[in-house]
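Summary for the steering committee. The consortium agreed at its last meeting that each partner would contribute one worked example illustrating the joint modelling workflow. Our contribution is presented below. We chose a case with several input lines so that the handling of multiple components could be demonstrated. No manual editing was applied between input and output; the record is shown as generated.
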Amino acid sequence: MIRFLTLCGLLAVLASPAMAGGPFPPITSEAVKTECAECHLLYRPQMLPAKSWAAMMADLANHFGEDASLAPGTLKEVTDYHLAHASDVDQPRRAKKFLAGVDLSNPPMKISDTPRFIRKHDDVPVAAFTSKAVGSKSRCQKCHTKAAEGNFEDDFVVIPGYINVFGVLVKKVWE
Amino acid sequence: MKMLSLAIALSTVLSATLGANTAQANPARDAIVAAFAAQAKAENPSFAGFSAAAGNTLFNSTHSGGKPDTPSCTSCHGTTPFATGETRAGKVIEPMAVSKNPGRYTDTEKVDKWFFRNCRSVLGRECTAQEKGDYLTYMISQ
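What follows is the complete predicted structure of the assembly.
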């Protein structure tokens, strides 16, 4: 009986969309949607732990080389939302994946420094990030064509200047 | 003859001014500029109005004292007020010129937020009311 229940549970997990990947849950804070997306892609709170977000929001005057200060009320809403949906707080499977391997005593301040990001991009040449069409690792949307909707699935990745031949990235030398 | 050329010059200036006003007038934007003018006057008793030329210089100059990645307005905004720009994270910034983007500078909160942030990023300090007014006057003239 226990074995049967385990099997049922396993099947349920396998059948759930979270297991198959799928997009991040929609962001429900208007302040987050507006303020964060004015300068960059709407990164997901589930991508970094609460400690990273707390440190970042406490120093928006020095935000990756720019002043991104917010008015106090807006700052509180944006901070609270990130803390409530951080990788070590939120429940969706996506959050857990971004938490795996993270040193919570010294968490990364950049999503591109998380173990998951590094592992998922280990086959992407550095030149693909620094190309004119992409520019830097902060520009997810340049390859992840549905990133703005929170969908980072491989199926929707197009790397400028490269084609994917049976899982191997080949530089378009003819372009 | 002198009288005639003076008249021509005067009418040119007048029509240019009137033309600019009819094309770009907006009560909300006018109020924002007027508020900066009042503030500039309070900061400096000899305040003599805003200058589009000074705004042009502010926009196009390379400044020191700010953050290294953003030495100029044009680091992110286009190279001209008519061009689109791009944030360092790759988001398109619509042109700054009012003729290109009539919705610009009509929301006080937005204007204040971006002057605060971007002056500190580019100049390493907040802008004076004179600078803000010069900048807006330049962008309104474009």
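Confidence is low (pLDDT under 50) at residues 12-22 of chain B. The helical segments of chain B are 2-24, 27-43, 52-60, 108-122, 129-141.
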